[in-house]
């Protein structure tokens, strides 16, 4: 499988763009695609940045532009990651065994924990993007979106098993080497220096905190649900993007 094929598969998995991956996907192909997830994240982030810049340049208020940008990202990703966040929070909110939590996650409904998580994530991302637009921190917008996909690589590291019945989880869980994850973290931390030029220390700290918080959340969900799944990965993405964007937007 060529790098180009890996990118196409990653784009077809992580976005709604009409890009076709290979007809048959095995774990080897999945490994290459997941390893390139941060590249897709940066592409999505670039689109979000351009949209945010265009909206504010056209006269839209920063909060409105931020909310529309978050909505556009949801459309570009089929809403999968927000859905994963909602399902995962509902599963964590249950008091039953892992089997019961997974059943709740697959029910298709949205419970109070899921609603609260969606409102919080969308609200924080929207206001953070608005603050970044006001401050002219355009690169930070793209980097925040990309950071979420770095967490995907870490969440699929070796030793992480798939939850029972998780088809996507079974395909991608345990496919990534620690080195691949470490390389992407270093790249993200290095780029963080450019995210807030007047405070070069703030960007790397925001990246480190966002990756750490999301990774710990994913680890807890894997233990709680008996393994990883697409919902868990989606939740990790949204948690990381939310924390990173909020961190980049700090002014103190």
Automatic annotation (TrEMBL):
Q: Where in the cell is it found?
A: Cell membrane
Q: Which InterPro entries match?
A: CobS
What keywords tag this UniProt record? Cell membrane, Cobalamin biosynthesis, Magnesium, Membrane, Transferase, Transmembrane, Transmembrane helix
Give the E.C. number(s). Answer: 2.7.8.26
Q: Does the keyword Secreted apply?
A: no
Transcription regulation as a keyword?
Answer: no
**Biological role:** Joins adenosylcobinamide-GDP and alpha-ribazole to generate adenosylcobalamin (Ado-cobalamin). Also synthesizes adenosylcobalamin 5'-phosphate from adenosylcobinamide-GDP and alpha-ribazole 5'-phosphate.
The residues forming a coiled coil are none
Q: Which GO terms describe its molecular function?
A: adenosylcobinamide-GDP ribazoletransferase activity
Which parts of the chain span the membrane according to its record?
33-54, 60-77, 110-132, 138-156, 168-195, 201-218
Principal location listed in the UniProt entry: membrane
Family the UniProt entry places it in = Belongs to the CobS family.
Q: Which cofactor does it need?
A: Mg(2+)
Q: In which pathway does it act?
A: Cofactor biosynthesis; adenosylcobalamin biosynthesis; adenosylcobalamin from cob(II)yrinate a,c-diamide: step 7/7
Q: Would you tell me the protein name for this molecule?
A: Adenosylcobinamide-GDP ribazoletransferase
Quote the catalytic activity from the record: alpha-ribazole 5'-phosphate + adenosylcob(III)inamide-GDP = adenosylcob(III)alamin 5'-phosphate + GMP + H(+); alpha-ribazole + adenosylcob(III)inamide-GDP = adenosylcob(III)alamin + GMP + H(+)
Task: Report the membrane topology from the UniProt record.
Answer: Multi-pass membrane protein
Q: Which Pfam family is one of this chain's hits?
A: CobS
């Amino acid at each position: 499988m060529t790098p180009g094929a890996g990118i196409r598969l990653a784009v077809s998995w992580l976005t709604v763009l009409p890009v076709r991956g290979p007809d048959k996907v095995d774990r080897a192909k999945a490994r290459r695609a997941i390893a390139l997830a941060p590249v897709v994240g940066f592409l999505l982030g670039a689109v979000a940045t351009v949209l945010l810049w265009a909206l504010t340049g056209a006269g839209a208020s920063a909060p409105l532009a931020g909310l529309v940008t978050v909505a556009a990202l949801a459309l570009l990703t089929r809403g999968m990651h927000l859905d994963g966040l909602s399902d995962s929070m509902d599963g964590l909110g249950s008091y039953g065994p892992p089997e019961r939590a997974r059943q709740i996650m697959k029910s298709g409904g949205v419970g109070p924990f899921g609603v609260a998580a969606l409102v919080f994530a969308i609200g924080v991302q929207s206001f953070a993007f608005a603050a970044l637009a006001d401050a002219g921190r355009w690169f930070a917008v793209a980097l925040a979106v990309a950071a979420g996909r770095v967490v995907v690589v870490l969440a699929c590291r070796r030793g992480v098993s798939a939850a029972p019945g998780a088809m996507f989880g079974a395909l991608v869980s345990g496919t990534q080497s620690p080195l691949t994850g470490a390389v992407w973290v270093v790249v993200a931390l290095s780029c963080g220096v450019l995210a807030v030029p007047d405070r070069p220390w703030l960007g790397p700290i925001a990246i480190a905190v966002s990756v750490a918080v999301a990774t710990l959340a994913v680890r807890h969900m894997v233990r709680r649900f008996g393994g990883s799944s697409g919902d868990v990965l989606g939740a990790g993405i949204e948690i990381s993007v939310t924390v990173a964007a909020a961190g980049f937007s700090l002014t103190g």
